[in-house]
Design goal:
Elements (H helix, E strand, L loop, with lengths): L1 H5 L3 H14 L4 E5 L2 H9 L2 H4 L4 E5 L4 H4 L2 H11 L4 E5 L13 H6 L3 E4 L3 H10 L4 E8 L4 H14 L4 E8 L1 H10 L7 E5 H7 L4 H8 L3 E4 L3 H16 L5 E3 L11 H10 E8 L3 E10 L8 H4 L15 H5 L31 H9 L6 H4 L3
Length: 372
Amino acid sequence: MKHLNEYRDVELAHGLLRDIGRKLTQPWVIMEICGGQTHAIMRYGLDQLLPSEIELVHGPGCPVCVTPLELIDKALAIASQPGVIFTSYGDMLRVPGSGRDLFSIRASGGDVRVVYSPLDAVQIARQNPDKQVVFFAIGFETTAPANAMSVLNAQSLGVENYSVLVSQVRVPPAMHAILSSPNNRVQGFLAAGHVCTVMGYWEYEPIAAQYKVPIVVTGFEPVDILQGIYKTVLLLEQNQIAVENAYTRLVTRSGNSPAQNVINKVFEVCDQKWRGIGQIPDSGWRLRSEYGKFDAEYRFSVGQIQPDESPDCIAGLILQGIKKPHDCPMFGTGCKPEHPLGATMVSSEGACAAYYRYSSSPLIPTSQVILD
């Protein structure tokens, strides 16, 4: 409770808001790269409390949202097969494929189960040797160690009926893609504290130098985020290009070496398609050849599925910080959490879901917003 109370403290938050206002001399556009930070910003009304000169835009920091449509369709094809137990985190069940989602597969008799760890899926495989058990291994650098460990665990236990459908993505190449775009508006970044807890922040230093943008690592509570914004504004106003760590209670420059070693043992870097954005070089991980027998995409021969995205969904523009959810003509009408056009409306870290849930509420009084 100490950190919950401390990093939601009203006086600390108000002090940071005043400090931000005093330092501003011009408008700035800052992108938070994490969907968890987006939800915190909207939940606590930070976007409304900040000076009008600060515009927050929302990056592709939701792993559910950027999982490519063809991979969702591959998951649906695998989950529909007899003798398959398909396991996934809960968010993925509502993500729409080309025509249905994993919930509809389960409703029609498919064995689709929610798990809280890929190691749970390995245990299910051990308990059901007559079934093929597949885990939908999605996520950024934060989930990669556990997903890699599940493969190593299955191998060491001799579990032959376990495989993973991999959609592992990496943050730094996505930042390169955003900053190199001719439509880029981002002048400073808030980097995700949980990703940096695993990987450190040394990879961001050449990005900051190449594109001349400051990057500040921060956490997920209101005071964390405001402190990150304050440090970013300081760097922008002083025309300093640097990477700063505002999440020192968890993050170091080098990150978690044992976790990185596990990732590098099981995965290798590859080009990756991001839903709504397209192919980003070196932005993903795939299983190394020595672990190829655990690759569900090849085990079930679903590698050739190539669907088309909905033309009505602008999630890709939202994930690049070019548009906001309320810029979409389908927002709140043709696209709602119960009937989403894209993953950004259904994921617990999606920007559209955050706007739908929080932005329609009246402004909470400043004295109450941090305590909510």
